[in-house]
UniProtKB/TrEMBL annotation:
Residues 60-426 form the Amidohydrolase-related domain. The lineage of its organism: Bacteria, Bacillati, Bacillota, Clostridia, Lachnospirales. This is Amidohydrolase-related domain-containing protein. It comes from Hungatella hathewayi WAL-18680. GO terms for biological process: guanine metabolic process. GO terms for cellular component: cytosol.
Amino acid sequence: MERQNFVLKGNLCYSLDEKNLSVVEQGYLVCEDGVSAGVYETLPEEYRQYPVVDYGDKLIVPGLVDLHVHAPQYAFRGLGMDMELLDWLNTHTFPEEAKYRDLEYAASAYGIFAEQMKHSATTRACIFATVHREATELLMDLMEETGLKTMVGKVNMDRNTPDYLVEDDAPQSAGDTIRWLDESAGRYERTKPILTPRFIPSVTDDLMGGLNVIRKRYHLPVQSHLSENQGEIAWVKELCPWSSCYGDAYDKQGMFGRDGDGYECKTIMAHCVYSGEEERKLLKERGVYVAHCPQSNTNLASGIAPARRYLEEGIHIGLGSDVAGGFTESIFRAMADAVQVSKLYWRLVDESAKPLTMEEAFYMGTKGGGSFFGKVGSFEKGYELDAVILDDAKLRHPQPLEIKERLERFIYLSDERHIVGKYVAGSKIF
Ligand code: GUN
Ligand code: FE
C-alpha cells in the first residue's frame, strides 16, 4: 500500500481529551510517513510541496477503534436477542462458532466480515476468532488484506464448552496456541496476535497458567471478558473460590495487565458491567482497558456499565461493538448507545452519575480505545494518521449547521454509505 507525504483538507474534528473536541473548519491535516505532522488553519510553508487532497465540505475524523468484536459471530447478528448471556452462548454462539472447523465456511463467513470492516469507519480492532487455529490464520490473512490494523486472537476453551467445540485439554490448547503464534510470526505487517482466553468459565487454571507462560515468552497482549452478567459472576465465584473478585481470578493467574515482573501485559476486558470497588482498583492499578459495549449489554440484558465512573477514576476505556451481542459493527452507533444507556443509568440507577456527553462518547470511540494501539485516535502531531472521510450531505437539514452539530448528527444518523474515504497509518484504504 502506498504511503507518502500528503495533506488532507476539510472540516477536521478530533479529541484532545475526553472533555475537549477540537474542530478546525477547512483545516489542513499534514501526513508525513504515516504520522500526523499537525493540524493547521493555514498550510505552513514547509508543507506546501505536498499534494493536497481536498475533501471540500466533508468532515474528517480519526478512524474509529473497536476494542471488542467477535468475527465468527458476524453471520448471526440479530438472532437470539431475547436471551441472556449464558443461554445465548449455548443456543446460538457455540453452535455457530463450531462451524469454523470447516475452512470453506470460515473463508466465506470471514470474507463477509472483513469486507464489512473495511468499509466501516473502523480503522483498528481487537478481534476474537474461534478455537480453530487454521480458521484463525485465515481470518488474519483476510484482515491483513483490508489494510486495517488489528489484533486477532485464537480463542482458548478447555472446559464448560459443548463437546463439539471444546479443546482436548490444557496442553493441547496451549500447544495449538504456540503453533498458531509460530505460524503467524513475521507473516503480517498490520495484523498482530493477541492471547484470548474466552472467559474464566471456559478456561481451566492449568490452561490459564500455560497461557501466562506463553504471554511472557512472546510478549503478548491479552483480551477477555469480565463481570458482564450476574449469573456468570456467581459461576466464577464457584469455579475460583480462591479469588476475591472476578478480576482477581485473572490477576492471580497473571493475566490482568501490568504484572510487576517487568513484562508489559496490555489487557482488554470487555464489559465490566458489575466491577465493584476492588475490581475497579485492580483495573486502574494494572492499566487494564475496559471495552464498553453498551449495545451488547442491552441486547443480552446484562446491565449498564458505569462508564462515567471509569472515566472519572482514570481507568482506560474504549468502545466495543461486541458483535454479535451487538448487532452492528458501527462504532458511531456504539457512541450513541453509550450516551443513551448512560442516561438510563443516571435516571434509574445512580442520580450522581451524570450522563455521558457527545465529546466523551467520541473520545472513547477514538482516542480512548486508540491508545491501546499506541499513539492512535487523534490528529495531534505524532499520532498515526488514521482518518475517515464523512459525507453528511444526504443527512439533509434545511439550515446550515455548525461543524460540531454536523458530527453529532452523523454519530446518530449515518451508516457505512456515508463513509467515503479511509486512511490507516497514512495508507489510503479507499
Ligand atoms: N462471554 C464469553 N463469551 C462471550 C461472547 O462470545 N460474547 C459475550 N458478549 N460475552 C461472552
Ligand atoms: Fe464478547
